[in-house]
Amino acid sequence: MSAIAEGGTANERQSAVRAVVAATVGNMLEWYDFAIYAAFAVPISKAFFPADSEVVSLLLGFVTFGLGFVARPFGAIVLGGFADRRGRRDALSLTILLMALGTGIIALCPGYNSIGLAAPIIILVARLIQGFSAGGEIGGALSTLVEHAPPQRRALFASFQQMSQGGSTMLSGLVAITIALLLPADAVTEWGWRLAFVVGLLIAPVGLYIRRELEDAPLFKASDHAAEAPIRLVLREHWRTVLTGILIVMLWTVAQYLANYFPTFAVRELKVSLSQSYLGPLVIGTVLLFCPLIGALADRYGRRRIMLAGAAGLAVVAYPAFSYLIASPTPQRLVSTQIVVAMFMLIYTAPASAVLAELFPTQVRATGISLTYSLGVAIFGGFTPAIITALISWTGQPVTVAFYLMGAAVISFAAVLTLTDRTGEVLK
Question: Within a 10 A sphere around the Cβ of 199, how many other Cβ atoms?
């Protein structure tokens, strides 16, 4: 935090640190709940979506996971607009309450064997609540970070958003490994997975308290707070920007949800043990903790150059990395493959947060970010586990996962080429 606190008055430094902590801690809870659902997809599917075929059961679980992303654009419109009109603090407090509600429902909902068809319906409602909440989260969090940042450190500040996603991925892996090691496999499938969602509930009060102490940045206070409905302004004046942003988000979200899918991939396709499969989120999350370092480099050398290197790297290494892993799926190869993928994911995604925030003016920044990211995730990211599961089942080739990642990397590389680099510019 020392780099964040440098420069400005004591009050400005204190406000900047508080903004980073509020955005990071709350954002970590938001993405933890998504990561933990993916990590425990197999037992969740058995509990709520029983079927004669394991593949069908898993697909139903992943489709429900994906449907939560369909709710994100609606959350982006409502909660993003709320953030642009009422303020970032109030919107961020609301999103964390909604996410905690969805998490609590999943943790406590009886299984299909107890209440029948009501069980998958309740889980779907919980996922829709979580998706709605997450739809507004990133806009409020990123707006808070960049609006408190000096122009020369904006990518550094914004990178804490992606770092918090990495932290949530790491935490989900750590919690999952702990549960898998402490409980028998049958207990994990029957009830142990619920403990992971209880952990998420414990984080919520801390995040809410920190966010209620947050102050909106002077940059936001000086804006006209979107006198017109923010979504109308975004769709009328910034629709081309939204389309470009969606393509930039494509690789970001595919890589993120591929990381969340790794435990299921490792167990089903590589036949590694349940506890070893959870090394994936732990390793990838640990690598993503270095996002602020890449963010600082993006402030010095520009966002565009670094993001192009990250996208090109993923396009090149995906196939050999996964082929190497699939040929002999040992724990050592599992970890080394994930480290390689995570490093290029880090290089691409750390500056992407700043780029997304710099695409929109303060008046509609939260709505623009939320809508762009939510659409990108809904189209490309949320259904990544379901698409990969279906492709592998259809082709019989686990390496199909690499081609999906490579395709996303090529498309996002082309989108980044069209960007105007706004490194160091003063935001309006």
Answer: 20
Q: CA torsion sign, 379 to 384 to 386 to 392?
A: positive
- Provide the percentage of residues in the chain whose pLDDT is more than 90: 42
- Cα(384)–Cα(405) distance, integer angstroms: 10
3-class SS string, 90-127: HHHHHHHHHHHHHHHHHHHCCCHHHHCCHHHHHHHHHH
Asked whether the beta carbons of 348 and 310 are under 8 A apart, the reply is: yes
In terms of Cα–Cα distance, which of 407, 359, 131, 392 is closest to 250? 407
Q: What is the pLDDT of residue 4?
A: 59
Give the torsion sign (CA, 309, 155, 209, 100).
negative
* H-only helix segments in 238-361: 239-268, 274-277, 279-288, 291-301, 303-327, 331-358
* Backbone phi, psi, residue 103, to 5°: -65, -45
Digit-coded pLDDT (tens) for 67-101 = 777 898 999 999 999 999 989 999 999 998 998 89
Using the 8-state DSSP alphabet, how is residue 191 labeled?
Answer: I
User: Alpha helices of 87-221 — where are they, by DSSP H?
Assistant: 88-108, 112-115, 118-147, 154-182, 185-187, 193-212, 218-221
pTM equals: 0.87
Q: Residue 37 class from Cβ within 10 Å (0-12 exposed, 13-18 middle, 19+ buried)?
A: buried
Q: What Cα–Cα distance (Å) separates residue 301 from each residue in 297, 352, 378, 419?
A: 6, 14, 31, 15
Task: List the single range of 123-127, 159-163, 216-220, 261-265 with lowest mean pLDDT.
Answer: 261-265
Q: Which long-range contacts (CB under 8 A, 24 or more apart) does 222-226 make?
A: 223/362, 223/363, 224/363, 225/84, 225/85, 225/86, 225/363, 226/81, 226/84, 226/85, 226/363, 226/364, 226/367
Q: Please state the rounded mean pLDDT for residues 147-171.
A: 90
Identify the structural domains of the chain with CATH numbers, from first to last: 2-417 (1.20.1250.20)
Tokens of 346: 């880090």
Rounded to 5°, angle at Cα 35 from 76 and 29: 65
Q: Let me know: does 91 contact 79? Beta carbons within 8 Å.
A: yes
